[in-house]
Structure formats: structure tokens, C-alpha cells
Amino acid sequence: MPDFDILIVGGGPVGAATALALRGVGLSVGLLEARGVQAARLDPRPIALSHGSRLILERLGLWEALQPATPIERIHVSQRGGFGRVELDAREAQLPALGYVVDYGQLVTAMDRELEAHEGCRRVRAKVLALEAGPDTAVARFDAGNGPEQATTRLLGVADGGALATTPARTRDYHQAVVTTRVSCGVPHRNVAYERFTPEGPLALLPMGERLALVWTTTPGQAQQLCEMPETAFLERLQGAFGRRLGAFSDVGERARYPLTLKVAHRIAESRIVALGNAAQTLHPVAGQGLNLGLRDAWELAATLRDCEHHEIGEAAQLGRYRSRRRLDRSGGIGFTDALVRLFSNDIAPLKLARGLGLAALGAAAPAKDFVIRRMTFGTRG
């Protein structure tokens, strides 16, 4: 008999959500997590959760612990130095909000506390050394501090983005980096999020409490400069890039930067191994699709496990059902995100004109706006 029915590698939000979604199903669940929870709890990155992700987190019993999450009631989309804009409105879409902004650390803390109460999940702090798949079980070799160990499982769920290197994947270096921080503004944000496309990449300002979470995509060199320059110079640069719609920016928080690369696993489920979240697809942060797509990965995998016979776990039929359930949503999210980056991160005149016409047309077509909102909120199954 294997040690586990499902062993999850990666204790981030997607791995934790997978374990929590399997409570009460009668399966033995293991979770290997390399990073100390305390470090993750202090991660200040802003996370934009879609309304669809809120529904998943409510079912997992986590939503109340994330309050006060700041709702996004409208999204304003424009391009710098060009005409055309779109405003997406939650009321027009008959949704309570288009999304919600929380701290990554806040989300991890809530999930960790819920996992502590999950008696059916065995958690091990360990460094994974190797993952191997066989005809009847998969094997994870790891070191929890006492030398090499191993565990066998019917199904290995890989939710650690760093483990993507073990799976054949296509990659694209966007030659961009993102800078994240918090800023204050002179005009109340009124729960409006802004996505402004510039030749260097998208600049997003998300309402977060009384302040704004900044997600600024630019070149790697400029990202380093933005993190190192004095606060006054940073605010001047931000003001020039965004304009004065929100008044004067002030009070910059701690700044961090991350390189941006697209990584997409060719096969997300085969040979008793299934890739989830960043291990299946690492996306650009534009439109905030990455974590939301990963949470749907976790929920759909748990659904296929709840619906199958115990002996089917990890077998070709169960993995095939999971691939089928995720095919359209996954390809749609990847394609949508990649297309936005490639079409908008340039200053080519014909494309700039076409973008403006496209934004203007979308802003005037209510059915098209509703289609975009539903896909961003619920994926292709929405």
C-alpha cells in the first residue's frame, strides 16, 4: 500500500487549497513544503482575487479570515499616449465586485491556520530531492533534516513552481520585470483599479484599504532603478507614467522586483503526476490571472478525486478527466494573458492605433464587456 492517496509538493496557496478541498473525502493526504511558513506570512505582494476565487475560498472556509479584503468595483483600462479606454463595472455585470485585493502573506496565514486544523493532512517541512513515477505509484524523495527519505503515493500533485523544471515546458522570456509596492494618492480611489498599458509594460494600481497596491511592469534595468532610487524620484517617475487622475502620489512602501517569464508545461497530468498552479503555468501578472487559474486547478482536481473510485486515483482515466476539465480554461487564460503582453507592450504606431480602436469598440459593446468580465472572473467554465 502506498503511504498516501495524494501527496502534494508545494505548500503555497494552490497546494494548500488542494489539500483543503479534499477534507472529508476519506483520502490520506500529504503536503511537502520547503519554505518556512513564517517567511511566507511576511510576503507583502498584493494579490488580486477574482470573484470566482472568492467563491472557492468561501467553500474552503477561508474567506472570513481574509477580511477586510478590498473590493474592486470598477476597472479602468487605457493606454499611455493613445486614445481608447474601457471601464468594466461590477454593477453592470451583476456581481458584488470584480475582484478583491489582499496581501499574499495574509492569504498564506489564513490557509496555514486552516491546515493546522486539518487532521487528514500530514505536513512535512522538507526539501524535495527527486520525483519519480511508476505504473502503480509515484515516489517523492526528500530531506526533512535527517537525511534522505521517501514517500509513495497513488497521485503526486506538484504545486511548486520551481518543480516545473522537471517537466517539459515551453518558455518565453518577456524581458520584463515587475515592481510591487504600496503608495498613497491625493484623490480617493473609490474602489477603482487602473490598468494602464505603456510601451515598457502594463502599470496597474489596485485599491488596497485606503492606499493603492502598485504592480508596475517595465524593463529589468528600469525595474532595478525604480527599486533603488530615492522615494521622491520614484514618485516623480510614477506620476509621469500614470498622470494625475488620482492626484499626487506619496508615501511609498517597501519596493520589490521580480523577473517575468512565461512557462507552460506541455503535459499537466500523466504517469501519476499532475502539475498545478505555477508548476503547470507561470503567467505574466497582467490582468491578474495566474493565482486565480491555479485555484481553479486545485478545485477541479479535488472534484475529479471526489468523483472517482479509490482505486482510480492517479490512473490514466482519472488524469484524463482532469486534463479535459482544465483544457479550455487553462489554454484560454494562458492565451489571453500572453496576447495582452505581446500586443500592448510596444509603441508601434499601427498597433497603437489598432489597440485604441479595439478598446473603444469594447467600451461601447456591453455584451463584449460582459464576456470579458465573465472569463476573467470564472474562466471558460463561467
Provide a count of the helices.
10
Question: How much strand content do the residues show?
Answer: 25-35%
| Helical content (DSSP H or I, runs of 4+) | 25-40%
Helix vs. strand class: alpha+beta
Instruction: Please identify which CATH superfamily of the domain at 4-69 and 101-169 and 263-357 we are dealing with.
Output: FAD/NAD(P)-binding domain
Task: Give the rounded overall mean pLDDT.
Answer: 90
Looking at CATH, which topology of the domain at 4-69 and 101-169 and 263-357 would you report?
Answer: FAD/NAD(P)-binding domain
- Overall CATH architecture of the domain at 4-69 and 101-169 and 263-357: 3-Layer(bba) Sandwich
Terminus-to-terminus distance: 39 Å
Number of strands: 20
The H/E string reads EHEHEHEEEEHEEEEEEEEHHEEEEEHHHH
Describe it.
- With 382 residues, this protein is of the alpha+beta class.
- The protein has a domain at 4-69 and 101-169 and 263-357: FAD/NAD(P)-binding domain (3-Layer(bba) Sandwich).
- It has ten helices and 20 strands.
- It has helices at residues 13-21, 37-41, 51-59, 104-116, 220-228, 231-242, 290-307, 316-344, 349-364, 366-378; strands at residues 4-9, 29-33, 46-50, 70-72, 74-79, 85-89, 99-103, 121-125, 127-133, 138-143, 148-158, 169-185, 192-198, 201-208, 211-218, 249-250, 256-265, 269-270, 273-275, 281-282.
- The strands form three sheets. Strands 5, 6, 12, 13, 14, 15, 16, 17 and 20 form a nine-stranded mixed beta sheet that branches. Strands 1, 2, 8, 9, 10, 11, 18 and 19 form an eight-stranded mixed beta sheet that branches.
- Helix 7 (290-307) packs antiparallel against helix 8 (316-344).
- The longest helix is centred in the C-terminal third of the chain and has 29 residues, at 316-344.
- It is globular.
- The mean pLDDT is 90.
